Amino acid sequence: MKTEKWMSLAAFAALLLPATSCDDWGKQDPPAGNQVTATLENVAAYDFEAEEGFDPMVYRLTANPGGQAPQIVEDEIKGKVLDLNNGYVSLSNPLNKVVLQKAASFTFWMMQPVVTETDGDGNETALPQDISSPLIAFENETGNGRMYITANGGINYSAADGEWVENDPATVTTGYLKPGEWHYVAVVLNNDGYDWYVDGERKVSKVVTDFDCSKLVKFANNVPTMTIGGADNASHWMVDDLKVYRNAITEKEITRPNLGGGSTGPGEIVTEPVAPVYFNSFDAGMNGCTIQGGGEIKYIGGAFGNVFSNAMDGMRQNYLLLPEDALSHSVETQALTISVWVNRGNETVSSHYMWSPLFTAYGAAPNPVNAMPMLACQYRGVLQVNNNGWSDYTDNQNVNGTNGIYHDATDWLADGGWHHYTATFTPTTAKVYFDGELVNEWVIDGVNNTAAGLFSNGADLKYICLGGNQAWDWGDPDPGFWFDDIAIFNQELSQEQVKSIVGLKKNAIYGNTFSLNEGDAKKMGAGDFIDNSTPGFGRIFKNAVGGTRENYLLLPENALGRVAETEELTVSMWINSTDAGDYFWNPVFTAYGAAPNPTNSNPMFACQYRGVVSINTEVPDNTGAAYCDYGADLSDTGEMILYHGELDWLADKGWHLYTVTLTPNKTIVYLDGEVANSWTLDGVSRGQVCDLKALAGLEYICLGGNQAWDWGDPDPGFGFDDIFLYNKVLSKNEIKQLMLLKK
Fold it and tell me: Minimal CB count within 10 Å: which of 124, 285, 376, 476?
């Protein structure tokens, strides 16, 4: 018996709802020859939301033998979508009405349900995905000319002027469109080749020399019929939001939109925060790790704080040993991601570490060398798995036909800076990212080559190593790399999620973790640096209680300088109120033009613990047009909630994340990743502008205390950790990701 599984939540209700497309055919081009540039134009769009039913003058619905006529159904994620169950839709070709100068482009959402087969004993097996059926096709009047794209990133063309097949599904079995999940596809047909994108990632980029691809563009421009699906389509696909473009689309159209629609704008990437099953920043101790050999915890400051510095040379001698259960959490999820920041550190010669591993895992300690099972993530961008199943992730399994090898002449660590490494695994796929960019991707058949044991037998990998300890008797020395923020996730992170994590460090214009006391800051007054026992925190700044404008931490005077480049700012810090004293009205972050003399004067910027903000970038007083205290009259909700007294969000004495984001016309305060207050400014009337360029010039920047003017409130005895400043606005999900990497 064969059954189909929808989304992970089970999902779509097969409601036979009549509908029609929402199509916008665009405008007739001027006569041919008048165009001198390739102008992008959306010539047709189909969202399948209308209630009137299919217009027979526009749509022709066909069921293939044994199949069903296309219909509109309700999907729990996408709403109304087109359901193709061994059938297809024929339309008048919208590209017929325009002149294609250099290219034709298409974007659409697609999902194929998981198809399973149950044997006589009730055992359920997933059947192979259909990747050979047409997704979008074009046909001539006689039916003897045809061009179509397939789910493996392939193109098939057959007409009187020639035949051409690229990425033939019979031999190229990519896993671009994973069954049971919605994917956003973007395809560009150029005069010299084609590009294929899935979920914003480029999967295929072909420059073709053995065939004239302008024939494809001309064919798509001239034939009368376009089909969604095809006459030889025996598969079951869901389709939504199909758009057809004249000429080549840009990054804006290629970028994956918000899956469910809603409040995010077109083209905005939704990056859901994800919690690691293991994480260590090295700022709060070893967190279950032990150093093998000559490595050490090293303080480098800034956004990185403490890092693990591995010792050079030796073989299987120098590395960091992680907790033995770090890889044991993927049995149910069948997915794994390993991410870590890397700096070549003590190494200066690429050839010395060109074969070194970054991350390895084995069943036991080397005796004298490691045996199976094993997992190896090489610095040069390749992988190996043998854990009740073997995969070497070879050239022919790479979606590009060859493995990218990044060492020696292509050493990605050669600049001596910090870089982010990520490897993701499923039973049939693997990916490697450097700094959030995809450098290698593989698809394996799951039979002859499999990584399934990495999940079902992951608990067997108990000897887990960061840096060094390479497999078997390889003769390469242990690399003297520096490492930070080792994170293991029991899911496959998307590229958007990886980039979000990278940005939390990479985009910081100032950071201080207090791993070695004040770092580049300066202690004012009687505050001190102490060890905090809360997991993930370690060394913190504990401000002194009492005094007025006496106790605070002074940040470097250029900490806000780069805000002028973008006119965006995010201020983020962890706060604890243990032994804080009276802090009813206190600021947590302030900035001024100069030190108090005897009190602060304008200009000023103050972020209050209670969830409000004050800004004045003019002098000498608070009467100018550039003054804003973000009152209830400017609030997006028409009211302003003050989080003190009975609403004290720090009352539990635990650690909490305080975040403020600012643009010239928008300010939001987040408490623990949730919006507490938000204000929208019109940029015209008094109190309705935030001059961020002027804000960037404030040089007396304070954490804790030092409130403005002659306010009489005592300096708060808050505990502070991980102050980060960004010259960009972090999204709500990015803020939550910051939280999940701390707690």
Answer: 124
| Chosen CATH of 278-495 out of 2.60.120, 3.30.160, 1.10.10, 2.60.40 | 2.60.120
Same-fold call for 2-23+39-254 versus 278-495: yes
272 Cβ neighbours under 8 A, 6+ residues apart: 497, 733
d(CA 544, CA 580): 8
Nearest to 71 by CA among 18, 33, 21, 113: 18
CA 337 to chain centroid, in Å, comes to 13
**Cβ neighbour number for residue 327 with a 10 Å cutoff:** 26
The structural domains of the chain, with segments of one domain joined by +, span 2-23+39-254, 278-495, 508-740
- Residue 662: closest CA among 721, 727, 602: 727
d(Cα 265, Cα 374) in Å, to the nearest integer? Answer: 44
CATH of domain 2-23+39-254: 2.60.120.200
Lateral strand order in the sheet of 604-608? 522-524, 552-555, 700-703, 587-592, 604-608, 613-616, 627-628
| Edge-to-edge strands, sheet with 390-391 | 290-292, 319-322, 463-466, 357-362, 374-378, 383-386, 390-391
CA distance 163 to 232: 18
Best CATH choice for the domain 508-740 from the list 3.90.380.10, 2.60.120.200, 1.20.1440.230, 2.30.130.60: 2.60.120.200
Q: pTM score > 0.85 for this model?
A: no
Task: Quote the longest CA-to-CA distance of the chain.
Answer: 89
Distances (CA, A) of 71 to 68, 80, 110, 678, 738: 9, 10, 15, 43, 43
Looking at the DSSP bridge assignments, the partners of residue 508 are 726
- Tell whether omega for the bond before 373 is within 30 degrees of 0, i.e. cis: yes
Terminal-to-terminal C-alpha distance of the chain: 46
Rg (CA), the chain: 29
Within 13 Å, how many C-alpha atoms sit on residue 132's CB side?
8
How far apart are alpha carbons 660 and 606 in whole angstroms? 11
The packing angle between helices 495-506 and 732-740, to 10°, is 80
Q: What is the spatial distance between Cα 244 and Cα 100, in angstroms, rounded to a whole number?
A: 12
Mean pLDDT split into 10-residue runs, the chain, 743 residues = 40 31 32 48 83 66 86 84 89 86 91 79 72 88 86 89 87 78 92 90 85 92 90 80 91 75 36 90 92 94 95 87 93 91 93 89 81 88 88 90 92 96 93 95 85 81 86 77 96 90 95 94 94 93 88 94 92 93 86 78 84 77 62 82 92 96 90 92 60 86 78 85 95 93 85
Contact 265, 114 (CB under 8 A): no
**CA dist list (Å): 156 to 145, 505, 617:** 11, 44, 62
